[in-house]
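Deliverable D4.2, example record:
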Amino acid sequence: MNLADEPDGWSYALNSTRLAYDQLRELDPYHPVSLVLNCQNFYYTEYSSGADIVFEDAYPVAINATWSIPWNTPCNLTYGDCGCDNCVGELTDVSTRLDDIQNYQDNIQGEGSKPTWAVIQAFGEQSYWPSIPSVAEVETMMMLAINHNAKGLTYWIYPSTSDVNVGSGELGKVFQSSTGMNFLFGTNAIKGLPVAGEPLVDASAWIVDGKMMVGVASGEYVDFSSTVTIMLPASAASIDTVLYGDSGWTVSGRMLSKTGLKALEIGVIVLNLG
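Output generated by the structure prediction step:
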């Protein structure tokens, strides 16, 4: 059950989420409790204490990261609301926010890790977001989230387009497949794999039962023809299957390569270790 939507953004009382959490756990000790945090780090420790699962909802597409569209004021580290707290207006705001939350949680003394989920921006044409993300932008945000240890995805979906709904659903099926879930819930992602040939490619790996799944997300908005090489955390013998995306990948030992990536191309590839 979701306990609160952006309590930090609304500046609810700092103990409000914990009080509500304790009441819910007393009434129902069997189901996990989640909440959605809006800010980069506004009393994270206090608000997150009221949840077993922490969601983030960085919505970066079409924002002006330095000037508030609806309020006509500047946005900086201490002032202003641009629709995405301390964001830069890039798709990687999603993965950066997940990294932040996981880092904050890991450094709370006496607390263990908590699963993180991402609320993906599938909407626009309102307020801070004058346009709706494209299918490619939505899928790239999804892949970035999964690459950065999101254990679940959900969406803010209105107003959106049928193309976005269909496209996100197709990629979502990969993560819901038995193969996808075996990797995603069998281990945590090895994030930030070194990439040569193109600086805006994000890659992560999961190793389970003698196989490795690799997630790839390009942040480039144009096609490019250079060869991209991902340095893997372990040696691979062959490609087992391509769960999503183009099949033009090749593997040699610890190098996974592909010549040319399309704009905002993503891929999910399963390798046989050896």
